[in-house]
Amino acid sequence: MLADIGQVEYRILLKQLAGLDSQSVYKADTSRLDSLFLPSFCDIRLVFAVVVIAELLAFIVVLSSGQAGAWDQLGLVSLFIQWVALSGAACLCLARPMLARLANTAAALSSYLLLLLVTALVSEIAFRITGMVSQSGMDHAGFLFRNLAVSAIISALLLRYLYVQHQWKQQIQAEAQARVQALQARIRPHFLFNSMNNIAALINIDPQRAEQAVEDLSDLFRVTLREASERVTLAEEIEVSCRYLRLETLRLGDRLDVKWHINTLPMQRKVPSLILQPLLENAVYHGIEPLPAGGTVHITGCVEGPRIRITVRNPKPHVGSARHRKGNQIALNNIRLRLQLAFGGQTGVALREVGDEYEATMYFPREKAR
């Protein structure tokens, strides 16, 4: 019996190790694809862009020919260029996993040669099955050489553009991660000592509450050790924010009241880590703490068509009062940059004054963009 149990536990352990190994392989493959400068040409948006650019190129070719009746050849020229463009995009789509295993220089050279090969094959097929060559007055070699020359120039410009764009994006991401790490570091000195003092005071008075505070503090600092690019669910992000607010409640007591209105949010939506907690930290530091009577922080989340909107409202001290604090919007700028990197241009973060309150709002797509 014990031997059977041991075998069962051994098989379970092997399955767990296999699962961990498959996860690590998947993460490694994903990391290689992310490091490749070539985007995924399987994306329908890129396919549409390829079609539009190819059609524009067909118009340019027809306009630049200067021959009588050139517009009569527009359909045939468009068909040929679209054939080359879509075939090249399909080959780059299929070869992307293999190209990701190479350095960017080798991947660029391989992609360049692949596009030239596609152009040569499509040109050869067009030469054999259409009357394009005879109507244009060029022989086989001239037709093939012209197409390869045009393809060489356009492919070089395209790959150079994609490489520069990839380098620029990596630089922006590195800058964003540095800013996020600085933002995460701000959590530690801001209320660490106050939280520890409150926990020490609660040990003899309310040991259970002190234990809960220690767990909240440890979980909050565990979040700060995550990678800046790591994604979490909205439920996890809200849980971290709740732990932060519970720690602030130990310090502010009844002066801090929190109202949540987030029942309609899709809690499994993946978002960058620490996008809500800094807004709450600003609300407490700039809105609640300066007021002797404290106030209420309202967190409202809803789905508006294709996007999610989360709003944090807090009272504001009177301008010019001794307790009034002017913020520098570092947290807002960091959140704005991280959302843009994660979801593109369909995001935003805004701060405005509504009566006697500050209102910070962020929004991002409801569904995964790709």
Task: Report on this structure.
- The protein is α+β, with helices and mostly antiparallel strands.
- The chain folds into three domains: 1-28; 36-137, no CATH class; 170-365, Heat Shock Protein 90, CATH 3.30.565.
- The protein is 65% helix and 13% strand.
- The protein has ten helices and seven strands.
- It has helices at 2-35, 44-65, 74-99, 104-129, 132-136, 140-205, 207-224, 234-252, 277-288, 330-343; strands at 231-233, 256-261, 270-272, 295-304, 307-315, 348-354, 357-365.
- The strands form two sheets. A five-stranded mixed beta sheet has the order 2-4-5-7-6, with helices on one face. Strands 1-3 form a two-stranded antiparallel ribbon.
- The longest helix has 66 residues, at 140-205.
- The two termini are 51 Å apart.
